[in-house]
Structure formats: structure tokens, C-alpha cells
Design a protein that fits this description.
about 30% strand; single chain; 7 helices; 3-stranded antiparallel beta sheet; Jelly Rolls
Length: about 250
């Protein structure tokens, strides 16, 4: 398996307690079924006009695409694929249980925009490129330091110097996977061409409470709140028991 980038969380943002693994990020050759990914891409393009909407991070996207493109579920249920991701983090993963935040398809180009500076709410994320069409720009850029320091630099100077960024070129047949909570990053604005990416969220089975999703953040893009019962039920049935167990053990 070819790996282009591999960083620990500490190498990216410094010492970090709020994590379920030492992994920061990895870009690796995924060997996924390209015919399957192409089918997902074609269906996403066909559904774009009817299903996509602007996100609060300034990119057009389809939320819950697994409900409309059944082939995505083949990826979500692929145990061999998840086992490979588990090998990077060193513990057990599960696809993020809350449907509204499980996966997304983002359309990025000069008209649809790209992702502003942000840190992720979901515990970990895999980014799978479905299309890179004559794209200029569109790289993932990660601030090398704490999120607060990076945000203060943006407030004071309006930009972050290139020497303080890790720039990751998007590639077909490769995934970027990592813990991007409390990790300031963006997609560099696209000058021309287009990029379409499938994003799949995961969390730790052992530490499901390591999760930065909040009601207000989810509601920013999903204001109808139809997901709230599932959100609170997961807290009651999974996150609180795991948190209290680890608190008693002195793990947290």
C-alpha cells in the first residue's frame, strides 16, 4: 500500500488529550473499486440540482447521500475497508451512527465554492475523491499548530503563511483519513476545474464520547431538527456509559 503522507496528531497540532488515537492524518492508496466510485460520481452529478444545498462551510453538498445512492452503502458496510482504517488508528472503528452526519458528497469549483477554515465535528473522517477535472487549487491545507493559534492568526492577519501549513494534493485512487477535530484546515479555493469528494465519518467504538458534534453545529445545516431524537438517544445509550466507565477507570 502506497502512503504519501502520514503524521501523528502531535506532529500536526502539538500535544493533544482529546483524541482516541495518536493518528493525525494519512494519505494512502485505497484500492477501492473504481467502477463503484464512478457509479457514485455519476449518480451524485445527476442528483446535484435536486438535492445539493450550500453548507455553512461554503461548499455545495448532498447530505445523507447514502439514502439516495445505494452504492455508497457498499462502502459503508465493507469490513475489509474499515479494518484497513483501524490499522491506522490502532483500535476499533464504526461508521458514524447519526445518519445526518454519516457521509456527504461535496461539489467544489469556482461557482460552488470550497471548504472554509474549520475543524471537524465528527471524530474522524475519510475523504475519497470521486472526480478531479482540470482542477487548479482544491488542496487540503492543515494549520500546523493549535486551532486557537490558527484562528487568532486569521483574525489578526486575514491569512496563514504557507510555511505554517501542510498542503495535501488531492489524488484519485487515494484517500485522506484522519482525526481533524480541533485541527484547523480548509480546502484551498479552486481557481478552475472541479473536484467532487465523498466524505465518510467514523468514531471509536471504545471511546464514542470523543466527538465534537453539538446540537447547534448540526442545526446550522440541518435546522429542521428531525435528527435530534437519534442524537440524544445515542448520548444516553452509548456515550454516557462509555464516558462513566472510563472516568471510573481513570482513563479520562
Amino acid at each position: 500500500m502506497n502512503i504519501i503522507h502520514h503524521y501523528t496528531r502531535e506532529e500536526l497540532i502539538g500535544p493533544s488529550f482529546w483524541k482516541f488515537s495518536d493518528l493525525g492524518m494519512v494519505q494512502f492508496q485505497n484500492n477501492y473499486d473504481q467502477a463503484l466510485l464512478d457509479t457514485i460520481r455519476r449518480k451524485a452529478i445527476a442528483l446535484k440540482n435536486s438535492l445539493s444545498s450550500p453548507s455553512c462551510l461554503s461548499s455545495s453538498y448532498i447530505r445523507e447521500p447514502h439514502k439516495h445512492i445505494i452504492e455508497i452503502n457498499e462502502l459503508l458496510e465493507d469490513k475489509e475497508r474499515i479494518a484497513r482504517l483501524e490499522s491506522f488508528v490502532g483500535n476499533s472503528l464504526e461508521v458514524y451512527p447519526l445518519s445526518i452526519a454519516r457521509c456527504f458528497i461535496h461539489f467544489m469549483n469556482p461557482n460552488d465554492g470550497s471548504l472554509f477554515w474549520h475543524s471537524d465535528a465528527v471524530p474522524s473522517l475519510e475523504i475519497i475523491n470521486l472526480e478531479l477535472s482540470d482542477v487548479v487549487g482544491g488542496e487540503m491545507q492543515i494549520y500546523k499548530g493549535s486551532e486557537d493559534e490558527g484562528r487568532m492568526e486569521l483574525v489578526k492577519n486575514g491569512k496563514i503563511p504557507e510555511e505554517k501549513l501542510l498542503t495535501v494534493k488531492p489524488r484519485l485512487e487515494y484517500s485522506v483519513f484522519g482525526q481533524f477535530t480541533r485541527t484547523l484546515h480548509r480546502t484551498r479555493p479552486i481557481e478552475s476545474g472541479s473536484r467532487i469528494a465523498l466524505l465518510i465519518a467514523y468514531r471509536s467504538k471504545e471511546k464514542p464520547y470523543i466527538d465534537d458534534n453539538t446540537v447547534w453545529f448540526l442545526a446550522a445545516d440541518n435546522p429542521r431538527m428531525e435528527w435530534l431524537d437519534d442524537f440524544t438517544q445515542d448520548i444516553k445509550s452509548t456515550k454516557i456509559p462509555a464516558y462513566l466507565r472510563d472516568k471510573q477507570l481513570g482513563v479520562i
